[in-house]
Amino acid sequence: MIRQGGDAGALMGIPVSVKDIYAVPGLPTYAGSSRRLPQQWEQPGPMIAALLAQLPSVMGKTHSVEFAFGGLGTNAHWGAPRNPWDREAHRTPGGSSAGAGVSLIGGTASLALGTDTAGSVRVPAAMTGVAGLKTTVGRWSTNQIVPLSSTLDTPGLLAHRVDDLAFAFDALDGALTRHGTRVPAPPALADLTFGVPGAFFWDDCSPGVAEAVEAAIRQLEAAGARLITFDLPHTDEVFTLFQQGGLAAAELAAFLKTELPEMIEALDPNVAARVKAADDMPAWEYVRRRAVIDKLTSAAATRLSDVDAMLTPTVALTPPTLESLLPEGAYARANMHALRNTVIANFMGLCGLTMPVGKDSAGMPVGLQVLSGPWQDARLLAIGQAIEEQLGTGITLLGEPPAP
Question: Which amino acids are annotated catalytic?
Answer without folding.
Answer: 19, 96, 120
